[in-house]
Amino acid sequence: MGVVSQDAIKELEARMKEVEEPLKITFQNVHQGYLVETLMRFLKAREWNVNKAHRMLVDCLNWRVQNEIDNILAKPIVPTDLYRAVRDSQLIGVSGYSREGLPVFAIGVGLSTFDKASVHYYVQSHIQINEYRDRVILPSASKKYGRPITTCVKVLDMTGLKLSALNQIKLLTIISTIDDLNYPEKTNTYYIVNVPYIFSACWKVVKPLLQERTRKKVQVLQGCGRDELLKIMDYASLPHFCKREGSGSSRNSDNRNENCFSLDHPFHQELYNHIMQQSLTNEPDELIKQGSFHVDVPEPPADRTEIAKTIESEFNKFENGKRLSDSLNGLRINGA
């Protein structure tokens, strides 16, 4: 780390000591004792500009206080059937750890439908997973490996990606905006697997729009990515959709304990039990009520909006091309 970087960290740390008490309290939940690493994340997100990083961090803390994010792990999605429906349509889970101790998050991008609950439940669930990662999983991994572990790796499965994904762009933009502004630089590498043609076409035009540090994190792998992923993790930690070449992804698996998207997977069982226990500890005399936890969503930055519009445009081009191809095929068949 260069002298300039160290000076930036020291200056940002000095500024954070001056924030008001409510922000200091929530800041502890953000850094979990790894102050320098947290300051570095926000500085990286703002190209090491101290003023911009300070503004970003203070805005993040205000967002946490105003939306009671510190208490979100005590707000279960109930009944359990509703939460299972969220899990079945928002495909995300933890399959294991890399050899360096980073948790491996698996995300079923292509087959997530986000059609079993309101937007608020999906946003609530996403933030809960973020908070559980940052407050439980990463501190536990840091303790186990004897060094700060503050990031994860993500394996994105594109199996089943269709034009209907256009309906999800608004929700995905909301989620990615929350991550960009409040959980920056938490992902070490994005591995993209089971890539269909429609993704490849979009990637060509979206890639130049990404910031350089983001582009460097993205690796598009051949097939299910098994061979490449085995270089950084053991077979047992591979997401279920990477364990057999050509197997693709599925919402269901013969072994539900292996399907890291399923509510029956140990990760989701531990997460849900943690949230239920926290809710009883915080409000022992109150019945757990059904209802989503509403969170204010900040406006997406201009570059995020441009990326969403570009994806939508490419999907529409693909759809129009497909319609033309179908029409031509129909003419050939009828004229045969």
UniProtKB/TrEMBL annotation:
The residue ranges of the CRAL-TRIO domain are: 79-239
> What's this protein's name?
SEC14 cytosolic factor
Q: Which species is the source of this protein?
A: Ziziphus jujuba (Chinese jujube)
